[in-house]
Write a structure and sequence with these properties.
mainly alpha, 2 domains, two-stranded antiparallel sheet, G-protein coupled receptors family 1 profile domain-containing protein, membrane, GPCR_Rhodpsn_7TM, transmembrane helix, transmembrane
C-alpha cells in the first residue's frame, strides 16, 4: 500500500509543478488556483502517510491534524463549486448579455473569495461533529468510516449541490438557446459547448470517485474492504485531481492555442510568432 501512496504523492507533485509553470506563463485561473491550494494540502498529507508506512513518523490526533483534513475536503468542494461558477459565468454571458457588470473581472474577483468562504463554512459542521479523526493505518486524519452523518453531509456538499446546480444551469441554457428567436452568436455557441464540457468533466470526476463511495455504502452491511477503504479513497481523489488538471484544457480550448503557440515561440522567436501568441492570449478573456 505504501507504493500506491508514493505514486499518489508523485502524481500530486507533478500536478503541483505543472500548475506553477502554468501560473508563470500567465494562465492562472480559479481552477488552477484551487488545484494549487489542494496540492499544498494533499502533498504533506501523503508524505505523512508514507512516513507512517515506514514508521518514520507516528501522527497524533491533534487540532492541527483535524484542521488539515478539514481543509483537504474543503478544497475538493471548492473545485466542484468553481465548476459551477464557471458554468454560471457562461450562462450569464448568453442569457444576460446586457448586464455588463456580471462579466467584469472585478465582479468575479469578489465572487471567488466568497465562494471559498461558503465552501469552508458548509463543511464546518463535519469538524464540530468530530467526524474527522486520526486513522492509525493511514497516519493522518480523515473522515471516519463510522461517521454516517458526516459522510452524507460531505457527499451532499462536495458532490451533490454543485452537480445539481451545474446540470440545472446547462439545461436552462439549452432551453434559452432553443427558445430564442434571435440568431445565436458564435460566442454563445462556444459558451454552450464549454458548459456541456463542464458537465461531462464533473460526471467523469464523480465516476472516478465512485469506487470509494460504493465501498462506503456496503461497509456497514458486509465490512468487506474496510482495511483498504481509506487508501482507495485517497488514491481515487488524487487520480481525479490529476486528471482534472489535464481536462481543464478541454474545458477552455483557447488555452490549447496559447500552449501550442508558446511551444513554437520557444523555437522561433520572430515578431510574427510573438504577435500570434499575444492574440491567442487575448482570446481567453472572451
Amino acid at each position: 500500500m505504501s507504493n500506491t501512496t508514493m505514486i499518489s504523492t508523485a502524481s500530486i507533485a507533478l500536478n503541483f509543478i505543472s500548475l506553477i509553470g502554468t501560473i508563470l506563463i500567465g494562465l492562472m485561473s480559479a481552477f488552477m488556483l484551487t488545484l494549487l491550494a489542494f496540492a499544498l494540502v494533499a502533498v504533506p498529507t501523503n508524505i505523512d502517510t508514507v512516513q507512517g508506512d515506514y514508521n518514520f513518523y507516528i501522527a497524533k490526533e491533534t487540532l492541527g491534524c483535524r484542521i488539515k483534513a478539514y481543509m483537504f475536503y474543503s478544497f475538493i468542494a471548492i473545485i466542484f463549486n468553481t465548476f459551477t461558477l464557471q458554468a454560471a459565468f457562461r450562462f450569464v454571458r448568453v442569457v444576460y448579455p446586457s448586464h455588463i457588470w456580471l462579466q467584469y473581472g472585478v465582479t468575479y474577483a469578489v465572487i471567488i473569495p466568497v465562494l471559498w468562504i461558503i465552501s469552508f463554512l458548509f463543511l464546518l459542521p463535519v469538524h464540530f461533529w468530530h467526524d474527522l479523526q486520526l486513522i492509525p493505518t493511514e497516519n493522518i486524519c480523515l473522515l471516519t468510516i463510522d461517521g454516517v452523518r458526516g459522510f452524507i453531509w460531505c457527499t451532499l456538499v462536495i458532490y451533490g449541490l454543485p452537480v445539481i446546480m451545474t446540470c440545472i444551469i446547462y439545461i436552462q441554457l439549452l432551453r434559452f438557446i432553443r427558445r430564442s428567436s434571435t440568431p445565436t452568436s458564435i460566442r454563445a455557441k462556444r459558451d454552450v459547448i464549454v458548459v456541456s464540457r463542464i458537465v461531462i468533466i464533473v460526471v467523469i470526476l464523480i465516476l472516478i470517485d465512485a469506487p470509494s463511495i460504493v465501498l462506503k455504502l456496503i461497509l456497514p452491511c458486509t465490512g468487506i474492504g474496510k482495511s483498504l477503504f481509506y487508501r482507495i479513497s485517497n488514491t481515487t481523489i488524487v487520480i481525479a485531481m490529476t486528471a482534472l488538471s489535464i481536462m481543464l484544457v478541454y474545458v477552455t480550448p483557447q488555452v490549447t492555442e496559447v500552449l501550442v503557440c508558446i511551444g513554437k515561440a520557444s523555437k522561433v522567436t520572430g515578431i510574427h510568432t510573438r504577435q500570434q501568441c499575444m492574440l491567442a492570449t487575448t482570446k481567453i478573456k472572451h
